[in-house]
Description:
Elements: H1 11-20, H2 22-39, H3 42-61, H4 65-89
Helix pairs in contact: 1-2, 2-3, 3-4
Amino acid sequence: MESERTGKFDFDTWADLAKSDPQAFEARRCEEIERLIGSASAANRCRLRGLQFRIDMERRRSRTPIGGCVRLSHLMMDAFHNQFVPCIVGDIDPSKPRDLTRAPVISMDRYRDQTGRCD
Length: 119
């Protein structure tokens, strides 16, 4: 939660709430996310809602909380490498539209465990 005086994130307060009342923590987390998305410009709001949907789905798909963290870490690294690095090294000109109708198909076989799940 944010400290009323400073407006900064108070980790200890959030951690205490998560330990003492996980359901209240989750409700408060959703409220804060919604508040943040609602404060964004109209142009960014839709994109932020889509991103939050992806985050929520990755968390739900995970069998454990740490599995969710790993999935979200991969999501962030993929976005960084696929969107930002090409712009930095000059492979993509961000001012020009990209062809989004074609994409390479990536095999997930190397990520599957013996049960066939990608985790």
